[in-house]
Amino acid sequence: MSKTAVIVLQMGGPDSLEAVKPFLTNLFSDREIIKIGPAWLQPLIARMIVRRRTPAVVEKYREIGGRSPIRPLTEAQAAALEQQLGLPCFVAMRYWQPFTAQAVQQARATGADKIIALSLYPHYSRATSGSSFNDLDRQLAAWGDGMQVIRIPQFFDHPLYIDALAEKIEAGLSAFPDRSKVQLLFSAHSLPQSFIDEGDPYLEQIQTTVRLVMERFSDVSHHLAFQSRAGPVKWLEPSTDDKLKELAANGCQNLLVVPLSFVSDHIETLHEIDIEYAAEATKLGITNFHRTESLNTSPTFIRCLAELVQTALQSS
Question: If we measure between CA atoms, which residue out of 184, 244, 192 comes closest to residue 219?
């Protein structure tokens, strides 16, 4: 009988301050997420960028506990998913341990001849899910045993994903005395505009998620912005920091930030939003600034992942 294992694909993050530099080197060396000069020169340019950026990034990780929480959180998601499905689930990180090669080896050790590759990026982009799937293909090709792979590349419009986001927003709104005076700011990870111009579906999928969520909150104003830019190229607009300035100038006092393209806490939520944007909002005069909880191991979100896998199996 066919035996199935699930591999969940995630970006990864440094698990210590010492890991920040090699993590960044892996990230900036990947031409699928960012192209820096000609291919043959990118590794050298990446090392130069990392040498300059590492001290500041190390300090940010120090301020959130000395490591990224993305590995333990993703492992907790995989464990909860395994319990729901009754199938072995393994974690494959793109830029830090546990790497994809380790997850493939673990899956093969179970005797599996079929892998469900589940991207934990809700919205597909060649820079995120695409790079992770390509890495998985390379690792499987190295074994050369023809294992069947079923890909789940996105879930931006899955009803249970929308439910999970809505639950977190409802809980976040409860922190304000009058929800009618609250504005929602969906903050998604940015992407170079050139990716969208070349046909990447990321932006359209982000906009669809916002539309579906806001069908549940017609009594609240909302906005969409993009965070985490890096480099001199043109990125998706507006940026989250520019949107904060605009909202403050228009008299916004109560703001609930919804981290949209992230399914677990990491530096973009714990530092960029909770520390950097919170401080900027206070400086701009936004008196009540809150962030919705990340999905992490939300039971509704885990049910979403389980349903995605079950549907993929039924259609295979």
Answer: 184
